Predict the structure.
Amino acid sequence: MKRIFLLVIIAVAAFQAQAQDQTLLGRSSRIGFFVSPYLEMGPLNQPWEASLGAGAGLVLGNGFIGFYGAAGADYEQLLQEDEFDRIDLAHGGLWVGYNPVQRWVFHPYTTLRIGPGVVNIDTNSWDDYIDNVLVVSPELGVEMNLTKFLRIAGTAGYRWVDGVSSPGLTNDDFTGWTGALTLRLGYFGRDNRPRHQPAND
């Protein structure tokens, strides 16, 4: 049943394929697959800490669906006389996006990441803490078609984290505004529509 559902999605997406996208160094199209490393800056006990992530997705017309994983840590705790040595946030799950007018070199880029995660707190004693959390991160920005195989996006977003209950920390220590730089590398497909047929955004 799952295979049939996936085949139906791919078939519908193929019929929705649109004109080739403009890029700085050539042309690309809409249906395909990509892998994506990204860097996110946002609250992680400190107001502005880095998290590294990666994901992969299936491009379906002007949208995509895939998965991601990310992790970051507040290492400044190591330099402070505090009960905490290090605070980590790791999460992963579903990654969806909608990117209209992809045929333009610069176009809007919107995504949503949602999934379970873990806040791990190393302390100076043996009493380390682990909280299971839920992370939701919507983003809005601009993506550039650098080549037909490479796209780069800059986004602003907001990260919600729920489930933090360790002593001295709350959800607010991990929730707040974020900024991200995302690379998407992959094969974005081939447009099989007749050349004379007008493109739709």
Remarks:
- The chain has a mean pLDDT of 80.
